[in-house]
Every structure is written in structure tokens, then in C-alpha cells.
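Minutes, project check-in
Item: structure for the 297-residue chain
Input as provided by the requester:
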Amino acid sequence: MALVQAEWVKNRLEKRYPGLRVDLEVITTKGDRILDVVLAKVGGKGLFVKEIEEALMDGRADLAVHSMKDVPHELPDGLIMAAVAEREDFRDVLIAGKYAALDELPHGARVGTSSLRRQAQLLHLRPDLNIIPLRGNVDTRLQKLESENLDAILLAAAGLIRLKMRHKVTQFLEPEVILPAIGQGALGLEVRAEDEALRQSIAFLNHEPTDVCVTAERAFLKRLQGGCQVPIAALGRLDEGGRIHLTGLVADPEGRRYFKHDLTAGAGEAETLGRTLAERLLKQGAGEILSEFGSQS
């Protein structure tokens, strides 16, 4: 997946600047290496970006391509997210061999996911489901649907679409059902802050509506100081009038305590909107969940 995303950026840069050659440097991160433990138990932030950012800082790489959902809310000193490319489909999807939809899964169905965010929302809707930890790349997870006798798995739509596997999708889950991860479907292009020339040259890849919405989502995350150990979700959507509709969620992993709210503001107030929504959920009781998992509220 990471290679497909990097190839997408490489192709657009080389098309924009004839004669430019972009070399891809494949870097294996901690999140890639540890596949036998769910991410919430691995601990730490930046499991899929730390080693890549180190390559930026020591000059082995000039540009990093990230899935924005994997990027911590604070970047290391000296690095900047120079562009956020146009968002792919932000939804989660259900893949189920025998069933046509989430509400058709039988009582006690075995559903695979590595995400506490998905787990919490599934169990809030269907407390009867059995959630089975699922790690690995997309192909591995699809294989485990059969090899581990699962009734269904949940994945991000964006990954399947980029890998040209849309046909595998059983059901697209609307955000009113399963709210996506913060930044889901968006690609971030990170560079050294001092590299002004490169920042200017990739500016054309920035998609302003996506950037604005992801900014609001990440401001929400930053105020909550949340990591992968806590089910947190948010989605910003820009309407035709230039206003952001931001929905945020904090829950416990079992989906019993469940705080969800939405607010709207102008596009120029993205960061304020994210912080305000976070404050609203904290006042409703989300802070208790965050404190239990070591997040600062």
C-alpha cells in the first residue's frame, strides 16, 4: 500500500516536471514489522512514520508520503506537512463472503479488525459480535477471512480502491454507521521545513478542501491527546457554502461508553472547530475514558 501511494506521488511529480527523476526509498517501520500484536498493545505514537521521518531528518530522503491517519498530531521539529493530497473515499468497508450487509451478520459472528476505533463502533451497534484481532497487509487480511473462519472483516475503502480491489467490497459503511479514522483516505507529503524549493514544487499537490477538513480533524485529535490505545474518530466535510461539518467520537473499546457530537464552522476556523468539538466531548464525559488509557485531557 505504501509503495502504491508513493508511486502515485512519483508519477505526478515526474509528469509535472519533465526530466525530473524521483527515486523511491522503501523504509520498513515498526508498525510494519510487528504483526502478531494489535496496534493498541504495541504502544507509542508514529508506529508507521517514525523511521521515515528519521530518514528525512538525516537527509536519506527528501520527501515522505504518509497515510494521514497514521501521522501523530504533532510533527518533529524541523519537519512540515507541505501538502495534503485530494482525499480518496474516507469510508470503512465490510467484506463478507456469505452476507450482504453488516446487519445481516448472524448473532455471534466473527469479525476481524485491528482497529479499536472500528471495534468500539461495531460493538456499540452489535454487542453480540465477536471481534477477532487482524493484522497484516490487505492481501493477508483478505486471506484470513477464509483461513481463520471469519464471517467478515473491516478495512479502509481507500486502500482497496488504490490497490484496484474495489470489487472485493461487500458494503460501504457510511460515517453515520462507522465514523472513519482521523485523516483516513488522505495522503500527506512531509518535507524538511528548511527545504523551501521542494515545498514550492509540491504545492500543486495540495487539495485545499481536503487540507481544511483534515486540519479540523487533527486539531480535534491534538486537543484530546489521543493515540491508537483509545477509540477516537473524526470526519470533516466541506459543504458548497465553504463550511466544515465536523463529527467526532470518543468511546471505550467495548462501545459501552460512547460520546459522539458534531459542530459546524467556516473553513477559516478549522483548528478552532476541532478544539471546540473536543472540548464538547470532554465535558460530556469523554475525558474519563481518555484518562483511563493515559491520554491527557
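Outcome recorded: The first helix runs from residue 2 to 16.
No further action items on this chain.
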